[in-house]
Amino acid sequence: MNMNFFVNTKVITGVDCVKNNADKISALGKKCLIVTGASSAKKCGALDDVLFALNSKNVQYEIYDKIQQNPTSDSCFEAGRLACETGADFILGIGGGSPLDASKAIAVVAANPNISEEMLYSMDWGKAPLPVVAVGTTAGTGSEVTGVAVITNSKGFKKSFRNDLSYPVLSLGDPQYTQSLSDSFTRSTAVDALAHCVESFFNRSANDISKVFAVAGVKKLFKVFDKVISDGTQNLTLEDREQLYNASLIGGLAISVTGTAFPHALGYFLTENYGVAHGTACAVFLNKFIEYNSSLKPELTAEFFEETGLDSERFMTVVSAVTPKINVSLTDEDIKNLSPRWQNNAGLKRNWGNVDCAFVNSVLKDLF
Ligand SMILES: [Fe+2]
């Protein structure tokens, strides 16, 4: 088993870390494009902190605040061209996975304003992307420490690219920003982080380093999950929120080695077609994923439970209790219509065994 590992990100976390590290941001240039969604960066205080840091170092900025949930390639091209026209030296993304993933694509377009959508995804870029600073405001995505961007293409499908040049150069994570998240958002992002850890552990390309991260992330998450189940997310302390945030970074480090597996591959259609939040859409497949690996890879599964201090029953009970409920039902026709998605699907190939169309159909039939 190899120990291959590469992460090209300076990670700084802790209360007020954005304001306290203005010098590290300003070292990247004199002008930046700030990339956010419509309101969350303002509501949680992150935008104020970023503006304070930029103003304190006389860094000029433009703000692009039109990134939607599940960002589209259209918005990335619009923002990328804006960054190019305004002479941005770097991109500063504030948010959860959507603005952070978008920032990575925007950084590519900013350096290569004439590329096509196809060239963006195939990484036929010409010039290296601009540097990206990631200011995380949710505890789930892990995008702060990966070179992966998931962007919805012009046909409405989530598609990703993964490149060593797309790691944020600087990631600033202040857990205070996650305190304003709603109950369902806190849960769906937390189970996204869990899915990253678990899918990374049972991944064909897992190695000794990625498994250390995967196990550490699961342990941290389950400590807080017990509290979520007994007291609800409204009673989480700043320390609990910090644990969730740190676990999400650890999950990001795990998938930066391995990528995800079938829960993510299957979850995308629930988001695209039924509007299910990303983390929830993936986590609804986690118990099936554990069942699948238990029968296919009993020794690996035993190792997972021994290392995490869990057992199968506890794992499944907690996952079911923490994951927000969804109301989706699929007819045989719906399942048939989804099947082209499972041909040559990279996320399915990363699983042990053979996750084929027949298997996916049986999972969908069972769950929905
Ligand atoms: Fe995810």
Question: Which labels suit this protein?
Answer:
368 residues, alpha/beta, Rossmann fold, Dehydroquinate synthase-like, alpha domain, 6-stranded parallel beta sheet, two-stranded antiparallel ribbon, 8 strands, 52% helix, binds fe (ii) ion
What would you say about this model in short?
The chain is built from 17 helices and 8 strands. With 368 residues, the protein is of the alpha/beta class.
* Helix-strand sequence: EHEHHEHEHHEEEEHHHHHHHHHHH
| Overall pLDDT level | 97
Shape: globular
What do we call the CATH topology of the largest domain?
Answer: Dehydroquinate synthase-like, alpha domain
N-end to C-end Cα span: 37 Å
Q: CATH homologous superfamily of the largest domain - what is it? A: Dehydroquinate synthase-like - alpha domain
Q: Number of helical runs?
A: 17
- The first-level CATH class of the largest domain is given as Mainly Alpha
Helix content: 40-55%
Please state roughly what percent of the residues sit in beta strands, choosing from under 5%, 5-15%, 15-25%, 25-35%, 35-45% or over 45%: 5-15%
Q: How many domains, in number, for the residues?
A: 2
Spans of at least 5 consecutive residues with low confidence: none
Biggest sheet, open or closed, and with what strands and sense?
6 strands, parallel
Return Rg in Å: 20 Å
Describe the protein's architecture and organization:
The protein has about 375 residues and is of the alpha/beta class. About 50% of the residues lie in helices and about 10% in strands. The chain folds into two domains: about 10-175, Rossmann fold (3-Layer(aba) Sandwich), CATH 3.40.50; about 180-365, Dehydroquinate synthase-like, alpha domain (Up-down Bundle), CATH 1.20.1090. The chain contains 17 helices and eight strands. The strands form two sheets. Strands 1-8-5-4-2-3 form a six-stranded parallel beta sheet, sandwiched between helices. Strands 6-7 form a two-stranded antiparallel sheet. Helix 7 runs antiparallel to helix 8, helix 8 (about 210-230) runs antiparallel to helix 9 (about 240-260) and helix 12 packs across helix 13 (about 300-310). The longest helix has 24 residues, at about 210-230. The chain is globular, with a radius of gyration of 20 Å. Bound molecules: fe (ii) ion.
